[in-house]
């Protein structure tokens, strides 16, 4: 038993898992960049008030899941539980809305929620998100949903469902909440403890509750979509029409509220069909009032976030986990100790030429070195012996076929590079 162990809900990504995580992340961000997004990097640590204000006091995240503590100066700080509020904070604080009316940002990094760890729900997790600030066009809502589709396509993830909904504008929500309270009536008693308490402050949270009884009851409650004003209805229709134009299949969800209070209007979730309870792999929506809420001028906005761990689980479920590709292209070997230094220098030269290379430092015999080359799955071994050095050549061994050729260094490099 190790003396020091990692904290519950955190993960060590050991190669090849680390490489799979990064290569997946890179594929996703490359796709995001083709839509004109630029990366924004914000701190991991933020003031607690930023999230209680933006996400909402009565949400699960704020009530139970924040990694919060007091720093030495007595400030209430948290490890960020999500990415949108920090981006909006930076946007307002740096005065970006005064200079640039329309921006597209993406972010990536670690996020933290203190929850009971389970598959696809760790306490430290990795997200990539996009935010478009400064535009109310429904075409943008449709476009970021389309970007979600494109990302999953790039990763070859196929078995997912797109849920589309709308929580309406603030006026719609206010009216809906009243209607909801009436409709709930004395059925409030059937709700779980959390929901019972929340019905007073924020009854919409019922639709986000995972408790079976609450979910069952929610099915029979009025639909948010039937209670939208004309403006919100039109917005939703335009999003739907654009999605149809782009051949994106979706399912209209009557109660897609998401676990955050800042959403207004369109909400969406990509759910993977082979994952269990934690099946949301990418989700977002419109949050037209958040910039104002955080102290900026009115700036309509929309965005989404995806969970990398869940994306990796989805890939695994579909049997598409990227292969372990150890990057060693050439492994330098020495026949005797005399050739060690030439092999060492050859390794440095290969690296300089852009070839990923390594060698065995143990000083053991050639057979042992070739075993090491196999262990790192090297494509070629470049063997140096007394004769090779005398002739100014190298013995190039293809590690797959076992074929060996005596070549000049340049010829060998040409073959390795192919
Ligand atoms: Zn409305
Ligand atoms: Zn509940």
Key phrases:
418 residues, alpha+beta, BirA Bifunctional Protein, domain 2, Rossmann fold, 8-stranded mixed beta sheet, 5-stranded mixed beta sheet, 16 helices, 21% strand, elongated, binds zinc ion
Commentary on this structure:
The protein has 16 helices and 16 strands. It has 418 residues and is of the alpha+beta class. It folds into 2 domains: 17-169 and 229-317, 2-Layer Sandwich (BirA Bifunctional Protein, domain 2), CATH 3.30.930; 330-417, Anticodon-binding domain (Rossmann fold, 3-Layer(aba) Sandwich), CATH 3.40.50. The strands form 3 sheets. The protein has an 8-stranded mixed β-sheet with strand order 1-5-6-11-10-9-7-8. Strands 13-12-14-15-16 form a 5-stranded mixed β-sheet, with helices on both faces. It has a 3-stranded antiparallel β-sheet with strand order 2-4-3. A hairpin with a 5-residue loop joins strand 3 (67-70) and strand 4. The chain is elongated, with a radius of gyration of 28 Å. The mean pLDDT is 94. Residues 191-192, 194-195, 209, 211, 214 line the site of one zinc ion (ZN).
Shape: elongated
Widest β-sheet, arrangement of strands: 1-5-6-11-10-9-7-8
The number of domains = 2
What ions, cofactors and ligands are bound? Answer: zinc ion
Percent of residues in helices comes to 25-40%
The DSSP helix count reads: 16
Number of strands: 16
- What Rg, in angstroms, do the CA atoms define? 28 Å
Structural class: alpha+beta
Label the CATH architecture of the largest domain.
2-Layer Sandwich
Brief rundown of the structure:
With 418 residues, this protein is an alpha+beta fold. The protein contains 16 helices and 16 strands. The protein has an eight-stranded mixed beta sheet with strand order 1-5-6-11-10-9-7-8. Strands 13-12-14-15-16 form a five-stranded mixed beta sheet, sandwiched between helices. Strands 2-4-3 form a three-stranded antiparallel beta sheet.
